[in-house]
Amino acid sequence: MALINQLVSRAALRPLNVRAISKSPLRPDRILWTDFRMPSTAAQTRRLPQFTEQRRTVVFKKEQGQPKHFNAKSNATASPSLLAESEEYEKNWVSETRYTQPHPIWNDEEVHAVQKTHFRPRGVSDRAALYLLRSIRGVFDVCTGYAFGPLSAQGWINRVVLLETIAGVPGLVGAAFRHLRSLRRMERDYGWIHTLLEEAENERMHLMSALMIKNPGRVFRTFVIAGQLFFLPLYTGMYLVSPRLAHRFVGYLEEEAVKTYTHLLEELEAGHQPELASMKAPLLARQYWSLKNDASFTDMIFAIRADESHHRDVNHTFANMKPNEENPFEPGH
Ligand SMILES: [Fe+2]
Ligand SMILES: [Fe+2]
Predict the structure, then answer these.
(1) How far apart, in whole angstroms, are the C-alpha atoms of residue 247 and residue 254?
(2) Has 179 been labeled as part of a binding site?
(3) Across residues 280-299, what is the average pLDDT?
(4) Which residues participate in Fe cation 2 binding (predicted)?
(5) How far is the CA of 200 from the centre of ligand 1 (A)?
């Protein structure tokens, strides 16, 4: 009986979680939900105020917090400048970063220490990965105008956005293959999946950061869709044939990404991109990489380049390993 009494009184003291659902005043087609933590009846009898703690208001704040173009389907484009980052915007912003997985937070020394490196191909499979990557890069350079001389500020942002829509694919495909392999063979994964998912998300956050600066138009969006239609089956096929080939390919892709971002940093530091150099890093980027509040666009590119060098090293390492060897990378590292 004493036990029953104890259980009843505990249940009575437990606060109730209440969800209020209503229509968003800003977007009538969207539902606004708000979670409240309501004190239990027992707590109320002790004169605690009702609805003491508002836990979160998910959709409403996100709608307010995003720049207007963020989900836009229009072909409105903007010159490189931060879109919609007013004080009000910062106050209401509920960042995508609250949902993100662990990832490296680089210090000043680390971001400046990044070097361009090259893994010398060993054997036919490595050479195939390298030549395939070089031919794709050739086409990519033509499509983004990189092959025809110095890029404008807008050109740089276009290139970054396009690059990141492709770079986010391999980690997800690799993780899916590893996950399915583990289910199919009924054996453990050896810790690879989390690193691959972290990589995919990290690339997506590069894209999200660049989207705070650029609002792609319809033609650009068509290119992105075409790029995914081409690259997803290609990389899936590659992973199906040989995970080693696929990881080596990504290792080489990331070597090129480090070169591209190093070139952009050189342009910024030489004063050739004054418009970009004078920009502040978007709030999303400042939160994601724990940058200072006054961090610049250049600081953001330093962090992105450090990420790319990390992906390069991870993928070359995976390509050198057998599929049933332990992943040496800890979560977030
Ligand atoms: Fe990236
Ligand atoms: Fe990368």
Answers:
(1) 10
(2) no
(3) 93
(4) 203, 254, 308, 311
(5) 9
3-state secondary structure the chain: CHHHHHHHHHHHHCCEEEEEEEECCCCCCCEEEEEEEECCHHHHHCCCCCCCEEEEEHHHHHHHHCCCCCCCCCCCCCCCCCCCCCHHHHHHCCCHHHHCCCCCCCCHHHHHCCCCCCCCCCHHHHHHHHHHHHHHHHHHHHHCCHHHCCCCHHHHHHHHHHHHHHHCHHHHHHHHHHHHHHHHHCCCCCCHHHHHHHHHHHHHHHHHHHHCCCCCCHHHHHHHHHHHHHHHHHHHHHHHHCHHHHHHHHHHHHHHHHHHHHHHHHHHHCCCCHHHHCCECCHHHHHHCCCCCCCEHHHHHHHHHHHHHHHHHHHHHHHHCCCCCCCCCCCCC
Q: Residue 303's closest CA among 120, 97, 136?
A: 97
Q: Are 297 and 277 in contact (CB under 8 A)?
A: yes
198 annotated as belonging to a binding site for a ligand: no
CA distance 202 to 258: 15
Neighbours of ion ligand 1 (CB under 5 A): 164, 167, 203, 206
Q: Assign domain 123-320 to its CATH superfamily.
A: Alternative oxidase (1.20.1260.140)
Ligand sitting nearest the alpha carbon of 203: 1
Q: Is residue 194 part of an annotated ligand binding site?
A: no
In the numeric block, the tokens 């680390």 are attached to: 110
Average pLDDT, the chain: 82
- Ligand with an atom nearest the CA of residue 303: 1
Gap between the terminal Cα atoms of the chain: 53
Instruction: Tell how far the Cα of 311 is from the centroid of ligand 2, in angstroms.
Output: 5
pTM score > 0.70 for this model?
A: yes
The pLDDT tens digits for 115-142 are: 999 999 999 999 999 999 999 999 999 9
Tell me if 201 is assigned to a ligand binding site.
Answer: no
